[in-house]
Specification:
- With about 80 residues, this protein is an all-alpha fold.
- The chain has one helix at about 35-85.
Length: about 80
């Protein structure tokens, strides 16, 4: 009575795979591809290095901010306890 009725699972459609056609390689316009690969790899490496450096700087700023905040809380408690005496 209180059991939910689950919908029937629809059948998955079948697809036919067409045979792949091979193409002849395109002729080059006389420009080598190798320099472009080197520039792309160098650009990727530069972006990765810049990302790592910026992440390290952000982590250093965060650690410094936390340590300054803790020092401020400790100094505040020391000053307030000195005034109470």
């Amino acid at each position: 009575m209180f059991r939910p009725k689950l919908p029937d699972i629809p059948a998955l459609p079948t697809t036919t795979v067409a045979p792949q056609q091979t193409q002849a390689p395109a002729t080059s316009a006389g420009r080598p591809v190798t320099p472009y690969v080197g520039v792309g790899a160098g650009a990727v490496a530069a972006v990765v290095v810049v990302g790592v450096v910026l992440t390290a700087l952000l982590a250093a700023v965060a650690v410094s901010a936390v340590s300054v905040a803790i020092a401020a809380v400790v100094l505040r408690s020391l000053v307030s306890s000195a005034h109470k005496r």
